[in-house]
Amino acid sequence: MPAAITHYLQVERVLKNLKKLHPHFDYNKNAILWGAQGPDFILSHNALPGQKSRYSIKKYGAYLQNENINNLQKEVMAAIKNKFFTRLEESYLIAFFCHSILDRLALPFINFGSQNLAELNKNCPLKVCRNNLKSTLDVIILRYEKQQLPTQIRLKSLLPKDEKVKNFMSELFCTLFNENYSANVKETDIFEAMCDFRKFFGLMTDRTGLKKSVLKKLEKWKGKDEYMSSFIRDLTEDDRYDYSNLLHGSWSWPMGSLEYRTDSFFDIYEQSIVESTTFVDKFILKCR
Hints:
Blueprint: H1 4-21, H2 29-35, H3 58-65, H4 69-80, H5 87-120, H6 126-146, H7 163-180, H8 187-204, H9 211-221, H10 265-287
Helix pairs in contact: 1-5, 1-6, 1-10, 2-5, 4-7, 5-6, 5-10, 7-8
């Protein structure tokens, strides 16, 4: 559920932990970067402006997002069918499972925050509030981890061009979808989704800080909501709302539930690093 930069930084932290546990641990960086984005790239298949009337496999990405982590691991292991993984395969799967763990831990927080923002701003659609929240959390976590601004990040660099990684991903996801969801997905569909994802990252990169304001004006001129511009990260967050719950206010999901929580997004983020390290450490030991 969090956005691209948060997922990348979370995996980077997990890798540092793994290096401490296994000093000789090595990985394929390009596979790590793609794996850190989990199945999100599937959601971008033919979803760019001008493509939405085309056939899309994006629903299968949502299916993977909703899978229990243990079920997901079983499905992935069955899809690969190898007893031992190559370094590329192992690297991709480590990052992929980290993505899944963070998604599941962050989902209640993202859902609550999105709904809360929508209730505070009646003119803002829920989908726009969700994007604004996720984009803002990217800004906050980037500052927390790197003391950097989003203008310093070229999003396409998180999705390197690597044919070996792409070939592995296309085979993996075709098997996953076709064997578990009665799909008829082709490798060309997976390649198209990866290409669309890189294009989307390019569109959402704002190295000058001007692209978002121009896009918002264009959306207003066309009478549309600020959906596309909400994917673009601002330089910093609007201090009128505590996006990360730094002040530890009470929240609950579903809304109205009596089981209140006070953890911040930082708490959830750090918890995901601990749980991911434990999970992938066992995964490494099991597969070697």
